[in-house]
Write a structure and sequence with these properties.
The protein is α/β, with parallel strands linked by helices. It is built from ten helices and 18 strands. α2 packs across α9 and α3 packs across α9. It binds flavin-adenine dinucleotide.
């Protein structure tokens, strides 16, 4: 059977003319072997991209990705798809810059339409102090080699005329625009990496929950799963919202809390929002999908939980923020909402590191922002697992920073804040 289903103009034309009957499955639904060189726990965006880059960049193909549900059923298929590189602090700036560059070549690399749309992200500010902060952030982005533009209210009115510019409480003073930021189709990203990994010999094993991690003499030797024991030379924990639970199987207590984050989609509307817009005075952001739905979200539900759905006070909070910024949104009907479990680290930055157990690696702490990190994280994690050295774009995501207090980073340079950014 043809598992590659590679796309080309000619193939699409041929399939179109012959009823699209020639496409095979995009990846092989593998059954577990007894042993692998590398086992990756978690078939989300980061697990799949790590497997892909291990095979592609390092020639390590005897790899299994173990997923307790179905590939892409976690946060990678639940997020609001924003891709950007507008971070402030050293450590983060170079990593997200690296990731955005990978995004820009990803569809060619994977031969998969991930619907990357660099429609630009507009981050509004609403006071003189916020303007100073935004300019500082924009300068950090430019120094990193990324793009940032300062927009006046006049510029904004031309780009996004439907915002409430007369608002007395949170007047709009301007914005930072990153034109290379935008959105991508989340499922397609998971599927593209899955296909790329499977093509290169990686076993993608669904409905296979890891229930234990085997350690002998300080070295990882394999995992226990609902489909039997699997031996492994190296194991990576890449399970996002379940990081604390899976790390506990290796006796580790992580500085991670799991919180619900909700997202919302309205009924389909004619094209009206061309960019991603972030409200600087309330936690609210919005874009419009290709199908016309307004895709928006806000803050966490503010208590630790493993539930994949949120609660009404946060729904109300998000809707109010949306109405404050853009009163016309009140006319749109919300079609659906859902939640995902976020792996929140105390400083808002991820962990990509070895652990104190030989051969056991961890990649977690992605907070709100792990979708944009999918290519970057897999790329640098594969480098770490293959070479034992941290990639130059990810030298600071060390687990021990929470013990030593060194190099704490955050998104905006406002400091570590335990009500979770
Ligand atoms: C509502 C919402 C909006 C978001 N918006 C954005 C955004 O706009 N931009 C952005 O950059 N980020 C966003 N994010 C964050 C982003 O989605 C996550 O940070 C990222 O997807 C997490 O990495 P992942 O894809 O590997 O996680 P997941 O897809 O959750 O993958 C982890 C996988 O591990 C599996 N697993 C767990 N335990 C086990 C086990 N014991 N054995 C086997 N498998 C296991 C899970 O089933 C899951 O499939 C958002 C998240 C949510 C919920």
């Amino acid at each position: 059977m043809d598992f590659s289903g590679r796309f080309s103009g000619l193939r699409i034309l041929k399939e179109g003319l012959t009823g699209n009957k020639g496409w095979g499955p995009h990846w092989k639904d593998a059954t577990p072997k007894e042993a692998y060189d590398v086992v990756i726990i978690g078939g989300g965006g980061h697990g799949l991209s790590t497997a892909y880059y291990l095979a592609k960049n390092h020639g390590i193909r005897n790899v299994a990705v173990l997923e307790k549900g179905y590939l892409g059923g976690g946060n990678v298929g639940r997020n609001t798809t924003i891709v950007r590189a507008n971070y402030m602090m050293p450590g983060n700036t170079e990593f997200y810059s690296h990731s955005l560059k990978l995004w820009e070549g990803l569809e060619q690399d994977l031969n998969y339409n991930a619907m990357l749309s660099q429609r630009g992200q507009i981050s509004l500010f609403h006071s003189d102090g916020q303007r100073d902060g935004a300019i500082r952030q924009g300068n950090a982005m430019i120094n990193q080699g990324d793009d940032a533009e300062l927009l006046s209210v006049g510029d904004l009115k031309k780009l996004v005329p439907f915002l409430d510019y007369k608002q007395a409480r949170y007047p709009i003073y301007g914005a930072i625009l990153q034109r290379r930021a935008g959105t991508a189709r989340h499922d397609a990203v998971a599927w593209g990496f899955a296909r790329g990994a499977s093509e290169r010999g990686v076993d993608l094993i669904q409905n296979c929950e890891v229930t234990g991690i085997d350690i002998e003499g300080g070295r990882v030797t394999g995992v226990q799963t609902t489909r039997g024991a699997i031996k492994a030379g190296k194991v990576a924990i890449i399970v996002a919202g379940r990081s604390s639970k899976v790390a506990a199987m290796a006796g580790m207590r992580l500085p991670i809390e799991s919180h619900v984050l909700q997202a919302f989609v309205s009924e389909g509307l004619k094209p009206c929002i061309d960019h991603v817009i972030s409200f600087g005075m309330g936690h609210f952001y919005i874009s419009q999908s290709d199908k016309g739905g307004l895709v928006f979200g806000g803050d966490l539900d503010f208590y630790a939980s493993y539930a994949a759905r949120g609660n009404l006070p946060t729904v109300e909070h998000v809707m109010e923020a949306g109405m404050t910024l853009m009163p016309a949104i009140g006319k749109a009907r919300v079609l659906r909402s859902w939640g995902g479990i976020m792996d929140m680290s105390p400083d808002g930055s991820p962990i990509i590191d070895k652990t104190h157990i030989d051969g056991l690696f961890i990649d977690c702490g992605w907070c709100y922002g792990g979708f944009k990190a999918v290519p970057g994280s897999g790329h640098v994690m594969a480098h770490l697992m293959a070479t034992g050295e941290h990639h130059a774009a990810a030298t600071k995501f060390r687990l021990d920073r929470f013990r030593t207090g060194q190099n704490l980073m955050d998104e905006e340079g406002t400091g570590s804040q335990h009500n979770l950014h």
